Amino acid sequence: MRKRLKLNRPSLRQRARPPRHRTASGARFSAANLSGILKLQHCTACQHIQYPPAELCGVCLADALVYRDTDNGGTLLAQSDLHHSLWEYFKRRLGDGPWSVGTVQLDGGPTMIVHLGPGEMAPGDRVQVFSHSDASQSAVLIAVPDSVDLRTREARRAIVLAMGLNAPAIRPTGA
Amino acid sequence: MRSYEGIVLTSPISLGYARQSAHGAGWYVGSVLRELLGATGIEKADVDGLSVSSFSLGADSAVALTQQLGLCVRWIEEANVGGVSGVLALRRAARAVQCGEAEIVACIGGDGAAHRSFELMAAQFSNWSIDAAFPYGAAGPNGPFSLITEHYMNRYGARREDFARICLDQRYNANHYPPALLGHKTLSLDDYLTARPIAGPLHLFDCVMPCAGGEGFLVMSEERALHLGIPGVRILAADERHNAHAEDPIQDRGGWTDYIDALYDRAHAGPEDVDLLQTYDDYPVISMMQMEDLGFCAKGEGPQFVQGTDMRFDHSGPAKNKLPHNTCGGQLSCGQAGAAAGFLGVTETLRQLTGAAVSHQVPQARLGLISGYGMVNYDRGLCSAAALLAGGDV
Ligand SMILES: [Zn+2]
Fold first, then answer.
1. What is the pLDDT of residue B394?
2. A46 located within any domain
3. What is the DSSP code string of B16-51?
4. Mind listing the pLDDT tens digit of every residue in chain B (394 residues)?
5. Which of B330, B328, B323, B236 is nearest to B279 (CA)?
6. How close does chain B come to A142, measured CA to CA in Å?
7. Is the distance from CB of B97 to CB of B89 less than 8 angstroms?
8. How far is B58 from chain A (nearest CA, A)?
9. Among A63, A135, B11, B145, which residue's Cβ finds the most Cβ atoms within 10 Å?
């Protein structure tokens, strides 16, 4: 981690990427979400949907969590435009304007911190959440308005492209 | 719950606040211990209990510090619980002394502030932060707290002007507490409102400045303190909760609501009897939440409460209702010294209740309420602790 943070120094990196570090559970979340719209851990013992990823069910404590396609509808509870970041990738993205994140409660229960995709979304609005690989090859969650068609891989990829999430942030020339 | 009768907290020490420091956490813990001994005349050999809170001990532990500092103790604890460190330390140390497991416990919080250390801590604070919070903008605690603040403002109609009341009165208090890192600067409503944006509704003066610092106090029997001739403060009641209200999708209350009525009952007091309040002010909305949950006003009435309450230490503000709050400026004006920030409310209350605050002494300070909050494992602070302390003549 210390080494990775060293590489986060602006002067050392031509191409800055989002935080790559994940726990073993986080890495399994990324692997499970290589395909599909949204895969979350479901407890086969009590049906609880577990997020953030964990090794045991947070309700019944069973070692019975499996990744499954998950109903991705939810409600946006709060949103925030970030103007400051500790990470070089986001610092560069902030040069183009604030970075939006939000809190979504899925209809299935879990509350998740997400990137907010393009489109108008206000607290209380219906939204849908999908997962996609970012420029560090980690799965991240993105919320978009309810009306957006997310059914094809191409449609989801176009949103991530528009956000600049799957490309490194290039060091501005002269910097 | 059994009372804490017969136990006192003594000799508050705060030292070494600095934006950056070449010293490690061990230096801060050891220096606080040296000052505790110097202030009380106690021999190092008489300290037989040690409680340490720190985020930056690195490879070391509280046990490693006993060898480095030449201490032999029969009771030890490492309570790295951020904003509740001070209240948890005093509760556990008081029970240890009450049960005869130790006679004098030194409770110390200390953290260094090496270059980029805050970034390192934010990036790997917990497993759930690593996997599910930090990747979303890498804003550190500002990320989740901007969402909590935004949600609170939408739900209860709070405005930035309401949060400003907390920040401005705290800065006034810090202007009278020389060690506060921002105490030499005044803060006006205009400064507050026009500050640069950080995250959502959070602007520069809503965010604490990470720093280095050390805080500490001693816990011993009332008898021992009397014998040593040092003033002590009694614990009338104290409690804690962790991961309360997990069903709330976004935090707008803490575990205090589970026990606050019982806490006042045990102390035979109510919020109206409190002479000074120290809340954990990592963000002003969190202080407001504590005022509500500690019974000073109903849920959602925090904005009106702070508008109608003078929170200056010397009662000099225009509002009629008086409640000196974060009387040395809190973290928002002193700086956030890692886990030591969780001790600031305790040491400050001890200074006030023993009449040792001098430059920022609250008049007639007899009953103090301290509240701790902390540990953002993912999307909210999980810990909420509180203690009611009384000076000599209550
Ligand atoms: Zn289960």
1. 40
2. yes
3. EEESS-SS-HHHHHHHHHHHHHHHHT--GGG--EEE
4. 899 999 999 999 999 999 999 999 999 999 999 999 999 999 999 999 999 999 999 899 999 999 999 999 999 999 889 999 999 999 999 999 999 999 999 999 999 988 777 787 888 889 999 999 999 999 999 999 999 999 999 999 999 999 999 999 999 999 999 999 999 999 999 999 999 999 999 999 999 999 999 999 999 999 999 999 999 999 999 999 999 999 999 999 999 999 999 999 999 999 999 999 999 999 999 999 999 999 999 999 999 999 999 999 999 999 999 999 999 999 999 999 999 999 999 999 999 999 999 999 999 999 999 999 999 999 999 999 999 999 974 4
5. B330
6. 10
7. no
8. 12
9. B145
Domain-located, residue A9:
no
Cβ <8 Å between B379 and A111: yes
Full domain range(s) for residue A149: 17-163
- Superfamily designation of domain B7-116+210-228: Thiolase/Chalcone synthase (3.40.47.10)
Q: Which two tokens stand for residue A90?
A: 């986001």
What angle separates helix B284-293 from helix B142-156, to the nearest 10 degrees? Answer: 50
At a CB cut-off of 8 Å and minimum separation 6, what does B65 contact? Answer: B26, B29, B30, B50, B52, B57, B71
Q: If pLDDT is split at 50, 70 and 90, which confidence band does A7 have? A: low
A78 CA to chain B: closest CA distance, Å? 5
**Sign of the CA dihedral with A13 first, then A19, A24, and A27 last:** negative
Closest partner residue to B135 (CB to CB) among A80, A105, A140 is: A140
Spatial distance between the Cα atoms of B217 and B11, rounded to a whole number of angstroms: 5
Q: What is the 3-state secondary structure (H, E, C) of chain A?
A: CHHHHHHCCHHHCCEECCCCCCCHHHHHHHHHCCCCCCEEEEECCCCCEECCCCCCCCCCCCCCEEEEECCCEEEEEEEEEECCCCCHHHHHHHCCCCEEEEEEEECCCCEEEEEECCCCCCCCCEEEEEEEECCCCCEEEEEEECCCCCCCHHHHHHHHHHHCCCCCEECCCCC
Rounded Cα gap, residues A42 and A51, in angstroms? 9
Judging contacts by C-beta atoms under 8 Å, the chain B residues touching residue A5 are 116, 119-120, 123
Q: How far apart are CA B155 and CA A78, in angstroms?
A: 10
Residue carrying the six token digits 């929170």? B311
CA–chain centroid gap for B312, Å, is 17
Token representation of residue B15: 């030292």
CA A60/CA A46 separation, integer angstroms: 7
pLDDT of residue A44 exceeding 60, the answer is yes
Q: Which residues of B touch A111 (CB under 8 A)?
A: 249-250, 379
Whether the link from the prior residue into A52 is cis, omega within 30° of 0, is: yes
Using CA coordinates, name the residue in chain B closest to A8.
B119
Query: Residues A113-138: pLDDT tens digits?
Result: 999 999 999 999 999 999 999 999 99
Number of domains in chain A: 1
d(CA B339, CA B80): 7
Q: Which residues contact A140 (CB under 8 A, 6 or more apart)?
A: A18, A115, A131, A132, A133, A134, A165, B135, B136
Q: Is pLDDT of A45 > 50? A: yes
- Mapped onto helix, strand or coil, the DSSP state of residue B134 is coil
